[in-house]
Amino acid sequence: MATLCFLAVVGLGQTNARNDYLSNLYFGRFNMTNVTADPDFSQNPINQYTDLLDRTPDGKIIIQNFYTIGLWNYCAGAGANTTKSILAVGQTSAQSVNFCSGRQLQWGFDPSITWGMPQQTQIEVFGDDFNNWMQNTYLSTSRMWISTLYIVAVTFTALQILVGIGGLFSRLGSVFTTIFSLFTTSFNFAFALYTTLTYIRMSTFDSTFSNAGIAFQLGGTVFIYVWFAWASSFVGGLFWAFSSCCCSGRPRGEDKGKQPQMGEYNPYTYERVTETPFGTTQTVVANRPASYDTGFRHGQ
């Protein structure tokens, strides 16, 4: 359940411009306050994907002070306030968000769409290396895998909760849940690792961005939730593995073949009493058929 909650918070990041906490759950942030590379960079032509709130009346894109990257969209704004979020690692303050773009499946941050930059302009401003990585890796592959792995991780986590209900009542159910948890943990780990590496790779172009007056910063809080989701999934898998090995689901005292203790009643035992020069001895013989349960004493 904890895994599903962590993943839900990740998916809700950047989806509500009026919520300071959710709007500050981002994978990366572009600070645009010092953009000086191109006199036309802050007034590029709009395109069909540009938000209505992010354009001038004469049809130009307004470059905001910052852009934050979420799982399904981006948010942008022109200021900052002092509201800090819980687990605000790597964030000095919450940003004053003006708007968040519409959510899209398999979304990726594309400068040619968000900033209205033609590919040739991107090459001139950011260089060939960034443009090649952006076009041939991030926008063509990474964004697809990030959203796909997230959806699969959420689906398997939810199904594991349902399967785990059966695992509470029997060892066989625990075995099935353990097997299921292996897939859940694997997909959560794949999502966490792939997403982290993707945006770390984007951060390596910071010097390139700096040439254009742009500063890039990795998000902190959202990655904590991403890795907490995997960690809780891993711990849950260990629990189910332990329960399948050590918990049979059978009430105590019902183990087959349990030998009775001396003096305990058992219909399948009999007592034989014999006399020796040293006194009377008693022998308990267990697990005999009922027909032998007669008990006898040797005569004098």
Task: Give an overview in words.
Keywords: Membrane, Signal, Transmembrane, Transmembrane helix. Pfam families: SUR7 (PF06687). The chain crosses the membrane at residues 144-165, 172-194, 214-242. InterPro entries: SUR7/Rim9-like_fungi (IPR009571), SUR7_domain (IPR052413). One of its GO terms (cellular component) is plasma membrane. There is one protein chain. Helix 1 packs antiparallel against helix 8, helix 4 crosses helix 5 (128-167) and helix 5 (128-167) packs antiparallel against helix 6. With 300 residues, this protein is α+β, with helices and mostly antiparallel strands. A hairpin with a 4-residue loop joins strand 2 (66-69) and strand 3 (74-80). The strands form 2 sheets. A 5-stranded antiparallel sheet has the order 4-3-2-1-5. It folds into 2 domains: 2-246, no CATH class; 260-300, no CATH class. Residues 42-50, 81-94, 248-256 and 290-300 have low confidence and may be disordered. The radius of gyration is 33 Å and the shape is elongated. It has 8 helices and 8 strands. It has helices at 2-12, 20-23, 111-114, 119-126, 128-167, 171-203, 206-211, 221-246, and strands at residues 28-31, 66-69, 74-80, 95-100, 215-218, 270-276, 279-285, 296-297.
Question: How are the SSEs ordered, and which strands pair?
Answer:
Layout: H1 2-12, H2 20-23, E1 28-31, E2 66-69, E3 74-80, E4 95-100, H3 111-114, H4 119-126, H5 128-167, H6 171-203, H7 206-211, E5 215-218, H8 221-246, E6 270-276, E7 279-285, E8 296-297
Helix pairs in contact: 1-5, 1-8, 4-5, 5-6, 6-8
Give the structure's gist in a few sentences.
The protein has 8 helices and 8 strands, in the order H-H-E-E-E-E-H-H-H-H-H-E-H-E-E-E. With 300 residues, it is of the alpha+beta class. 30% of the residues are buried.
